[in-house]
Specification:
Double Stranded RNA Binding Domain
Length: 149
């Protein structure tokens, strides 16, 4: 996630255009520049100065076009954790993974896993290992559950 929030400030304003105080201009401040913290501070300042409505408008104007270009699958690599966090927040439950099949010879198995959320089948996935099959099923479930958000 830090990769995605870190790219926006770099494209809009580089380190050279950010204004550091007298103490920040000396020493190691330039080496520890964190664009995510800079962006968080900027949004906080916008909120304190203009209130929620204006801040929301500004965020939508600048971030919606950027968010549309983000490839969620390139950023996330552990969909099981992401899905668990999402389902606990949205559904107050955890996903359940059920092995529904395996095929192929012992040296070249393909595993098939189903994911249930609140007792409903949400998606299936397959992979060369049980872990890969669960990750693929979690990815499909997460994308399915969040496509209309």
């Amino acid at each position: 996630m830090r990769r995605s929030c870190g790219s926006w400030p770099r494209t809009c304003a580089s380190e050279s255009t950010s204004s550091l105080g007298r103490g920040g201009a000396v020493g190691r401040a330039r080496e520890t520049f964190d664009p995510c913290k800079c962006l968080e501070a900027l949004i906080g300042a916008l909120y304190l100065d203009g209130g929620f409505s204006k801040t929301k408008d500004i965020i939508h104007r600048f971030f919606v076009p950027v968010l549309g270009r983000i490839d969620i699958e390139a950023i996330l690599d552990d969909f099981k954790s992401v899905l668990q966090e999402f389902t606990q927040e949205a559904y107050k439950t955890r996903p359940e993974y059920v092995m529904i099949g395996e095929s192929g010879p012992a040296h070249d198995k393909v595993f098939r896993v189903a994911v249930y959320v609140q007792g409903k089948l949400r998606a299936e996935g397959e992979g060369r290992s049980k872990k890969d099959a669960e990750q693929n099923a979690a990815r499909e479930t997460f994308l399915c559950l969040t496509k209309n958000l």
